[in-house]
Design brief:
heterodimer; A: about 210 residues; mainly alpha; 2 strands; B: alpha+beta; 6 helices; ion transport (chain B); EC 7.2.1.1 (chain B); translocase (chain B)
């Protein structure tokens, strides 16, 4: 039993840092670039991805013995697409303004490689409870990067965190001259690049 | 297990079942959220009408203000006949405009709308003393890429614009979306729709309207077609196939 829990722990924890889907496998970068200019959108995006990832992994893992080999990718896609559309509809209902800001990127969760990748690589081979743990771990790994990038971008780009003023910008009569570059998608490239670099250096030191 | 998943039949059965299950999940969610979505649409409509009429909310909820000072009504465009009932807010103007039974092709389609509904929902806005403050009418027409939808509020003289609000369009992001900018729509405030002869004279002027021009609104460079779309919509909707008959009746205080 103890080895079992240790293995489960490993499944949950390793995608957050050592095997991070964004930083180490460079998956799902597209959406990470697009929605990371404020913490609020990044958080909502993380929640949406977590929901889709957990349920897609769970459902696919439950029906994994029934999925015919020749149509397995299509079957996974169908499940994922259904979940994403549900998330999109719910989001439009509860947070219309936010869903407008996220625009197409909620729909594009369908093509997020992390979800596809976990379904094919993990959920197809493992029982549901492990698949859920794996989904949670990967979603957190995605969320950590996304929120990290959004933290830097919102702080340096607009001087705010979650819309609350931290650094008073010159426009509002303060001292901080906002760096407009951080509001634009390319800055996320630099930040994710730096993160990948840092994580790699630490990994190598550990051996 | 009797189910052989990798046979042709097995694959077929699996895919059909999966698709059915997924579609049930989707329709189920859509059905659950439908009522709330409609209510939200109605609320949004109310809010835009109040913005168009330039009503000061004064910290109150826009729904209560709307209930208190706005009367929605349906207008038969060709005759100017007005009707009100409890269901006016549920009137589906988009559906009415494409249903051949409730619409017709305009003779002179300046706004490029292809078919025009026989009935349109308009709003009478009253001030605190119960006097008519403005009439809010919907307009729409084609811009460069898309239909532009908006409301125009007109003062009781049936000529001076109170405010304009554009609430839906699909024009080029970054170029045509000045339509949503309250600063741009505010340029319509106080402008006059008609000239002395009663023809629609409001224009979106390229290169900027002259100082003191009571009919001209500044265009935005780079978005010629979008501005022209707004101008043509106004021309159509306040012309004789639009609200002219209704306005004449209002002026004669018959409604």
């Amino acid at each position: 039993m103890s080895t079992n829990t240790a293995a489960t722990r490993e499944i949950l924890v390793s995608p957050i840092f050592t095997n991070n889907p964004v930083a180490m496998q460079v998956l799902g970068v597209c959406s990470a670039l697009a929605v990371s200019n404020s913490l609020q959108t990044a958080l909502v995006m993380t929640i949406a991805v977590t929901f889709v990832l957990v349920f897609s992994n769970m459902i696919i893992s439950m029906i994994r013995r029934l999925i015919p080999n020749s149509v397995r990718i299509i079957a996974q896609m169908t499940v994922i697409a259904t979940l994403v559309i549900i998330v999109d509809m719910v989001l439009q209902d509860v947070a219309y303004e936010l869903s407008r800001q996220l625009s197409v990127f909620v729909g594009l969760i369908i093509t997020n490689c992390i979800i596809m990748g976990r379904a094919e690589a993990f959920a197809m081979k493992n029982p549901p409870h492990l698949a859920i743990v794996d989904a949670l771990g990967n979603a957190m790994g995605y969320g950590v990067i996304l929120l990290g990038v959004a933290f830097v971008r919102e702080l340096l780009g607009s001087g705010t965190l979650f819309g609350h003023e931290i650094l008073k910008t010159v426009e509002n009569g303060g001292w901080y001259l906002a760096n407009e570059m951080f509001k634009l998608p390319p800055s996320a490239f630099f930040l994710i690049g730096l993160m990948i670099w840092t994580i790699n250096v630490i990994q190598r030191k550990r051996g | 297990m009797a189910f052989k998943k990798d046979t042709v039949l097995g694959t077929m059965v699996f895919t059909v079942t999966l698709c059915l299950l997924c579609s049930f999940m989707l329709t189920g969610t859509a059905e659950l959220l439908k009522e709330r979505k409609l209510a939200k649409k109605r609320d949004e409509l109310k809010r835009y009408v109040l913005v168009a009429a330039d009503v000061d909310l004064g910290g109150n909820d826009f729904r209560t203000i709307f209930e208190k000072s706005v009367t929605p009504m349906l207008v038969e465009l060709d005759t100017g006949v007005v009707s009100t009932d409890d269901n006016v807010m549920n009137f589906d103007d988009r559906m009415a405009a494409i249903n051949p039974d409730t619409s017709r092709k305009p003779k002179k389609d300046t706004a490029k709308i292809k078919s025009r509904a026989d009935q349109v929902r308009v709003f009478k806005v009253f001030d605190d003393n119960g006097k008519l403050a403005s009439v809010v009418v919907p307009i729409y027409g084609k811009g460069l890429w898309s239909m532009i939808y908006g409301f125009v509020a007109v003062k009781p003289d049936m000529n001076t614009i109170v405010n304009v609000v554009i609430y839906e369009h699909g024009e080029t992001p970054g170029i045509g979306d000045f339509l949503n900018d309250p600063e741009w729509t505010a340029k319509f405030q106080g402008k006059q729709l008609f000239d002395e002869k009663g023809k629609v004279a409001l224009k979106v002027v390229k290169g900027g309207a002259k100082e003191g021009d009571i009919h001209g609104v500044d265009a935005v460079s780079g978005a010629t077609m979008t501005g022209r779309g707004v101008q043509r919509s106004i021309k159509f909707w306040f012309g004789n196939e639009g609200f002219q008959t209704f306005f004449n009746k209002l002026k004669a205080s018959e409604v």
